[in-house]
Amino acid sequence: MAGLEFNLSGLGRGAKKRDYDVIIIGAGAAGLTSAIYTSRARLSTLIIEKGAVGGLAGTTHLIENYPGFDAPIPGPELMDRFKKQAKLMGAEFFTSEVIGVEKGPYIRIKTTDGDFNAKALIIATGTTHKHLNVEGEKEFYGKGVSYCATCDAPLFKDKDVVVVGCGNSGLQEGLFLLKYVKSITFVEFLPYIIAEEILQERIKKYENVSFLLNHEVLSIKGDERLSSVVVRDRKSKDIKEIPSEGVFIYVGLLPQTEVFKGFVNIDKWGYIVVDDFMNSSVEGVYAAGDVRANSVRQVASAVGDGAIAAITAEKYIASMED
Ligand SMILES: Cc1cc2nc3c(=O)[nH]c(=O)nc-3n(C[C@H](O)[C@H](O)[C@H](O)COP(=O)(O)OP(=O)(O)OC[C@H]3O[C@@H](n4cnc5c(N)ncnc54)[C@H](O)[C@@H]3O)c2cc1C
Fold first, then answer.
1. Does ligand 1 lie within 6 Å of residue 172's CB atom?
2. How far, in Å, CA of 174 to CA of 151, rounded?
3. What is residue 177's DSSP assignment?
4. Which range of residues forms the domain containing residue 196?
5. Is 126 within 8 Å of 56 (Cβ atoms)?
6. Helical axes 29-40 vs 75-89, angle rounded to 10°
7. Strands lying side by side in the sheet with 183-187
8. Which of 127, 79, 123, 118 is nearest to 98 (CA)?
9. What is the pLDDT of residues 246-266, one digit of tens each?
10. 86 occurs within a structural domain
């Protein structure tokens, strides 16, 4: 890009330069798909990722509703394939956290490791796990409290654990935990289980599983490590203390959009508002995947969004050069 000066110091975690045709924030299913498309269109592409490449799907033990596989595929394996394909097409990766975005002649992306510039920006920052915000949750994080069964299940071999939340995520991750743990007590705030029927049927076959529906978690207790979870029956108000060495929390997701507030339009729940072509309220800026408003939050939909955002970005860049 002519006319822009860049500080090239501090590079070395994947990025070869400071200015790109397309920058993608987030290396989950949506961001990696966008990268496959834009790199294949011969646009210089950088993906900036603050954590592990693969995003949420990379921490899910099995995915069985993503088309093209006749057996469930481990999430980490699926996302590794996405990553390899993006690299093969020429996408570059940079490990850093995006902390701000500005629109000038180009789009300036500020990271904890310096600024980058792009003609087009695709925001694919997804969501993060909601916390219960109860006493002990922060204190025992990593000492019994977890938000990722795929990452932590082997640490709870032959132990009694609690899973909070009976949505698809809670039951799906519970099924994985059952390969390791002695027992699971599921705690659900609602008086019924909201997960898909197929998951309910599978989990109910296990004898070492019990359900406390219509219960809320009051606190998480322990000494050096977690030893119990205190819950209250929302109807009778009875309080129970469940002896447990681990608690896995799946109570919903929060969009990762804090840094984009005031830059693009965001809905009342914090998701980025886009049109059918993934255009945000700012020209040249797109959102794709779980982070965009009205997403069904699945790998398949993130992939579709990522492709749409990339093709829209390609057309925008081509129009700049007309
Ligand atoms: C427990 C669980 C089970 C699931 N099971 C299934 C399933 O079986 N089938 C299915 O289709 N879907 C499933 N999903 C949903 C699926 O994982 C998501 O829909 C999909 O991963 C969304 O992809 P994404 O690219 O939009 O976002 P994410 O995968 O969330 O990726 C976003 C990435 O952006 C990065 N990021 C965020 N902010 C910044 C920043 N400021 N700077 C740099 N990087 C940043 C994050 O670190 C992350 O890697 C499941 C989800 C959960 C939680």
1. yes
2. 13
3. H
4. 131-249
5. yes
6. 20
7. 145-146, 246-249, 160-164, 183-187, 209-212
8. 123
9. 999 999 999 999 999 999 999
10. yes
Its pTM stands at 0.89
> pLDDT of 48-97, one tens digit each?
999 999 999 998 888 989 999 999 999 999 999 999 999 999 999 999 99
Give per-residue pLDDT as tens, 271-301: 999 999 999 999 999 999 999 999 999 999 9
Q: Is 145 found in the same domain as 83?
A: no
Q: What letter represents residue 116's amino acid? A: F
**Ligand 1: centre distance to CA 60 (Å):** 9
Measuring from atom 33 of ligand 1, which residue has the nearest CA?
A: 26
Q: Which ligand 1 atom sits closest to the C-alpha of 63?
A: 8
Number of domains within the chain: 2
Q: Are residues 136 and 200 in the same domain?
A: yes
Is residue 98 domain-shared with residue 180, that is, in the same domain? no
* One domain, residues 82 and 216: no
**CATH number of the structural domain spanning residue 186:** 3.50.50.60
Q: Give the ligand 1 atom nearest the CA of 170.
A: 1
| Closest ligand 1 atom to 253 CA | 53
**Cα(202)–Cα(6) distance, integer angstroms:** 55
> In sequence order, which residues have a C-beta less than 8 Å from that of residue 122 and are 6 or more positions away?
22, 23, 24, 25, 31, 34, 38, 278, 285, 286, 287, 288, 306, 309, 310, 313
Q: Are residues 177 and 314 in the same domain?
A: no
Q: Domain check: are 260 and 295 in the same one?
A: yes
Residue nearest to atom 27 of ligand 1 (CA): 126
